[in-house]
């Protein structure tokens, strides 16, 4: 309501898109979303926007890059702060030790255990994946 009163078109657009995504997911599930599911919806929208920013940058569409970046900033206010790199590294190290992963063939098993340890926390899965690959590669 505040975005409408302030006539903040960018924020209003992002919030309407978020509300529509939440409603669609609730309809798919056939019930109201819990906090974890709602967080997943917001995280997915942020990831989509980041992918769009990369594509628009390559295409030279700076106007769209700015629009998507603004939407990311708005959406991220609805997410908890991201997990620190130290926490991700500790989770990956513990997961690899727990699973006995020792080489590149064990990446999937290591990732599954690491992501289970980081469940419910906001973090970049790509950073965790890169760390697992790095530790198992050598």
Structure description:
The chain is mainly alpha-helical. It folds into two domains: 2-76, Hypothetical Protein Yqey, Chain: A, domain1 (Orthogonal Bundle), CATH 1.10.1510.10; 85-137, Arc Repressor Mutant, subunit A. It contains seven helices and no strands. It has helices at 2-5, 9-29, 35-59, 62-76, 85-99, 107-117, 125-137. Helix 5 (85-99) packs across helix 7 (125-137). The model has no long low-confidence stretch (mean pLDDT 83).
Short synopsis of the structure:
The protein is mostly helical and 138 residues long. It has two domains: 2-76, Orthogonal Bundle (Hypothetical Protein Yqey, Chain: A, domain1); 85-137, Arc Repressor Mutant, subunit A.
Supply the number of helical segments. 7
CATH class of the largest domain, named Mainly Alpha
Cα distance, first to last residue?
53 Å
- Report the helical percentage: over 70%
Q: What structural class is derived from the secondary structure elements?
A: mainly alpha
Biggest sheet details: none
What is the CATH architecture descriptor of the largest domain? Orthogonal Bundle
CATH topology of the largest domain: Hypothetical Protein Yqey, Chain: A, domain1
Element layout with pairings:
Elements: H1 2-5, H2 9-29, H3 35-59, H4 62-76, H5 85-99, H6 107-117, H7 125-137
Helix pairs in contact: 2-3, 2-4, 3-4, 5-6, 5-7, 6-7
Short descriptors:
about 140 residues, mainly alpha, Hypothetical Protein Yqey, Chain: A, domain1, Arc Repressor Mutant, subunit A, 2 domains, about 75% helix, about 0% strand
């Amino acid at each position: 309501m505040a975005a409408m009163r302030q006539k903040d078109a960018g924020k209003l657009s992002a919030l309407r898109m978020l509300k529509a995504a939440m409603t669609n997911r609730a309809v798919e599930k056939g019930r109201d979303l819990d906090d974890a599911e709602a967080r997943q919806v917001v995280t997915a929208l942020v990831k989509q926007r980041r992918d769009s920013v990369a594509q628009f940058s390559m295409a030279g569409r700076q106007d769209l890059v700015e629009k998507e970046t603004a939407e990311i900033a708005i959406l991220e206010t609805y997410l908890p702060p991201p997990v620190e790199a130290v926490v991700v590294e500790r989770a990956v190290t513990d997961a690899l030790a727990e699973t006995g992963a020792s080489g590149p063939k064990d990446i999937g098993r290591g990732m599954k255990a690491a992501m289970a340890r980081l469940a419910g926390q906001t973090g970049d899965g790509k950073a965790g994946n890169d760390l697992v690959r790095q530790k198992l590669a050598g």
